[in-house]
């Protein structure tokens, strides 16, 4: 295929001879600099768009040093300290924190700090404690603590070093580089800082006529990233708002919302309102409050960029807190596009599904850095893995653009790699071209994921740090990763949505996660309105798929509150006296492509069938790992976990059809017989995009209607032999 | 050794010639009949004591049929049934129950039955439902249920078949035997039944001058044992009081305690107050109430037995509810002895530690039944396993007697088996004889197990059905099984005991179990008095050993409420944003005899160290399985689980020494270098009883003081080569 466009490449100085050819060959229509590289003089003659990175809230050390009261804040909690048998208790609040990043804000400590007896949950009155010292020597002394109670101090602190720049600085040993400083940030709520941000951006735009796209990295408040006293990462939450706090903001909040926030509203027992916590009223209000502020200020910056005829591209990361790209405010910012790092199919969809922007761009792996582009490195292999992971997501909901980052001069030393990414770029463009710009067809089964966050955190569930592996999430993330490439329109719905009738628009709803987390739902499952809504939905023919500890909260003889729908519950020790006689049914529509054992990852503990009406499809050491249960007109499916694999993705595909009562249609849905192969169907174009997701050649059979996933078309059968990783366009008719 | 006594053998008719020699050889001083055998005429000439089984609460079908209102009751819960979108809800209460065992008591249903909306926990008013039909056709109709709410009916039912006799009947296919009837029981609270019980017992005693010991099997109320509609076991709780209920008893309770019991006080959401549930006030009161009633009536029966110059021996099982052998009332009964089935070291101690009886007797395995005593059976092997399991417990706290049951005529066909049990009897007697009737010495480290039940359920923790394996208990029962053979005086203490200062009398306390259960403690760990007591205990030098989910209840930023002492907590998903850098320390006093991996059984999930002060001794897939933590003057030890093994028992032995800060003494405690060998030390006799617990020969080194576990005696070292299973008496000096 000879096509051009939709691709951004990093360029650098010293390659002027090669650049036109490289860009031409890969079909790049945009270039960018990277950390540590500068655009060459030749750039404006390359006939491509030019991106340049911009940091609104850091980078001018002169301003920062002159306006130390504009530095951003953190709310932090001290260690948990046990009081002695008698006498006062001294708490060194900075224990475990990094003095180069954090400095206690010794302003109005009685207003902003809080001492809590964690043994009783009671707040210690402000006249019961005092603060002495400063910096790392800051000590809170509780005069008369209760003997052997555990205490914590919640304290407000200045951020004395920008988190991302600090990460780059320490990772790259910039302490040996005299040109590097420790960059201090500034808070957009500070009037002088805001004035500086806008005037700086204007000046920057004026001075850079050659730049077409301002790549904001990013706006104001960094996700929560705190280092320990050894300078190692101590706390990371890619969704954390702890670094968005300040007395100024809290006062403004109080004026608007009519109630006063406490330190505990941010510190949250030390959990800092991470996304796994069921969001409190105060935290939900805070997100709303900051989201409106951030989006309003982003709009001001975007307006400036537009005044200069440039585009505003937002990087999805770093100082992105408060933008909430899936929130209602985001459309008001006028941001033209969003670019983010693609680490999986789910993160690809997290970018490509963002509504209200003109385009999205995925930065692919590997980054052109010496760790991979070196002898013994495998850039080709990494590019293949990255492409196979994301291709199935792109085929469902294409990114408008893809790109790479790093040092092009390194990459060109690997010609096979350059060949491969050229193929990838062509393959990517073909989805837009052959698909005629339309989305592939989805099944008419409407699927929802129910959790506490709903649409606002679409594709953002079960993440701690962006796309990293965590022991407690991979067994749930696999559901999202599967769905990112499956032919379903997916809605993320909240419990409030369900209370408002949102299930009427769905055929199958999933509840996925660990008990008590925002993803499972916690005490929402004690609300009879929610329970009745889901039971009614199922009674009318809907499907409920629970993964892990769905609908879980111990009450009235059940742990899974919808055990009546799911047909299973979890043994916590209280019902061991009940005899059970589990019988496995290995043959079922759901498991037709899974002849062997099911990999449920971490598993969900000891799951039992509630009665003989439950079909146990996989039983391991006496525990149910997969079950199917008819309830009224509808159906429940239970999965103990679903780490991503081709087989598990196929299992979920089938489970959704079964839950919807639509298994009779499955044979005509263009689903390949081999679980490692997937198809995106474009009925308007009369084409199907067949992807071999494996690194080996496979043969597979396809069967589907000439009219696509629906319609009256005849059912055609097709046998295909596919090369490793091959994608191929087929004709449906 | 030629000794005699302390052994009970089953005899039967038709073996008159052999009996004297067999009894002589094995040294038996007592004989018994068994189910299906009768004592021969020769019995009175054998020069041994004679036991005969007696059933106070069943066995006279004529009386039972003439007094059907004296039948005992159950409280049972119906299935959980979901209400439809509209219209009434009919609940067939007998669904899943066995008509031959259970019959709804249709008496004053409005007083005794209860309909509960399990979606809200609300009781449905009595005028909101009605009962129709009877027997298996009994239906409760809820006139206007809330749509899609789940309902249950708690109903009172007659026991129309005695549970144990039913079990024997169905297991042995007695339906084919016209001489067998389905025995109906009678309730000791019924005046006519009680009158019948006492007069029958008198008559029985009169008619049996040859009987020396009345073996009560047992008294009045059976443990909870309910069968399903296929006649298979549906619910079993060896500690269950569900079969002790009746309107008569509940009225008497109300008169005495001043409040009215609800059906829910017994049905308990379907959990039926099993021992894993934290006992409610009402259930604790009920135990107290029934315990006093049962013990008073037992005393009356025992008095009759004593009048006739016989002894009263209680079987620990079947209709034993309300006796509570470790309760304060038990001594008032005058029962002479308790006999029970020995299935492990812990069950052996459960029998041998019962206070206030003159003697205890363990019935050993295998039972002389055709299932084992047949071609292909391995009675010798089973005898060895049983003996090795119980010997270590007997060496710590000897049973006064041992015995066997079943058909002697079968056993004599296996001469190697008969030889072996003769050796076992001699070995058993030697512990009494060489030990001079004294208990072996215990370490001066005083050890307690803390749970909701305390002393009343000494050695009875973590059991569902007596000595059976359950998935959720074996990882905890291993602690008890280990302690049953380790040289520690063990106290079982309750949370109320702790509130009353009981920790003052201990050096190390263990908290063992799953979160929320009575064995871990549930909400007791939210009581600051309890937390302060344990923290103070540790601060003054005490040791806390937690196994599984100790001190667990989610509150104020911790799941293990004593995570500050234990140095670990459990990740439930809320603190994943906190970075952890676990480092394993393979070398530690506690693990000196465990070079490899630790078997923690089911494990406890994702356990993390709270800080660098925690020494992680075993780390598996990122989770802590064993940790040691200094806290103040004291120490915490965490174990994710401890299924019984020789290695794990040794590990616990060491953990207790370390927790007590006494590891320096360990080398002189006569602990063999080989974990498969144990020693009971009798300083007064100057002897040690060395046991090779393995079926293979071992060499081991011993080191200990000539004065025993304490004292000023010199430390001696000794090398021993032991035959498989050998026990040997050594001289300490
Ligand atoms: Mg990141
Ligand atoms: Mg208690
Ligand atoms: Mg039993």
TrEMBL record, chains A, B:
- Gene3D superfamilies per record: 3.40.50.880, Glycosidases, Immunoglobulins
Annotated NCBIfam families: 1,3-beta-galactosyl-N-acetylhexosamine phosphorylase
Source domain of life is Bacteria
Q: Name one Pfam family in it.
A: LBP_M
Per UniProt, residues of the Lacto-N-biose phosphorylase-like N-terminal TIM barrel domain are 5-440
GO MF assignments: 1,4-alpha-oligoglucan phosphorylase activity
InterPro entries per the record?
Answer: Class_I_gatase-like, Ig-like_fold, Lact_bio_phlase-like_N, Lacto-N-biose_phosphorylase, LBP_M
Q: Which GO terms fall under biological process for this protein?
A: carbohydrate metabolic process
Report what the protein is called: 1,3-beta-galactosyl-N-acetylhexosamine phosphorylase
The Lacto-N-biose phosphorylase central domain covers which part of the protein?
446-663
Native species: Tessaracoccus aquimaris
